[in-house]
Predict the structure.
Amino acid sequence: MAHNLEIIDGKASFASNKSAWHGLGTIVENAMTAEEAIKLANLDYQVALEPATFCIGKNQSIVIPNKFATYRTDSNMPLGVVGSKYSLVQNREAFGFFDSIVGGDSAMYETVGVLGIGQRIFVSAKMPDVIRINGTDDISEVFVLLTSSHDGSGSIVAAVTPQRVYCENSLNIALKNTISKVAIRHTTSASKKLEDAHKLLGISHKYITEVNEMFNFLAKKSITDSQVKQLVSELYKSEKEDSTRINNIREAVIVAYFTGAGQSEIVGTAWGAYNAITFHQNHIQKYKSADVKFDSIMDGASFKIQNEAFHKLMAL
């Protein structure tokens, strides 16, 4: 079950205004309001905390210090184990935050769903603007994505992405291909940070306009083959310059630059170089596991490489 959507009485906790590949959940004809989305996708459940314990024998129960179990109050199903600083953010609270980001009527709720048995939720909305690279067929619709977890596995993340989300796999892909994002940890300050996050994320017509301008600036900026190779050498470093692994990575990025998907129109531009680097990090680079890949692209080494590449290319 690759989609990993929650199934209740044979029906997926998922709603969309378009049919997804898995054909599950509820399909609506028009844009959903937040309240409709919550009810249609079964997100109207509460999460609570209880001290985590373990049993010795049949009668002795021992509390684990500074550890708490999260669980659904409607089914008493355990969701995860968290630390003492963990702060709950209920689904409705997260949706309130999402409403403040998408700006009411300026966006359209596209998809909403519950993963697993409620450990994770997601919602996406399509913005009215698109990202268009002039002189090419490169046009991307823009979606705003929110995902939150209740099992201690990750932060609340709001992001701008060109990917529509309809299952766990597409959620992971969307999070790998963010244009901008804000991650908020589940701490006592989470609620206050939720109130301010839309300001930090800057999701608005003005923001999309600025992204268009930056990407088109890169598309118009010429870059030589030697500059691309120099950039790749600076981004992928090793204590040993003759490291076989690093040399293989550099070579793979250069190959992606010249022959990758959609590169034929943009080779020789800073935009082409940026696309090659992000394509390599998101689709070619080997990671120890899916979780390691997710963390690296979201906030780790891969994110830093892509961010550094963008700023170096903008400054050429």
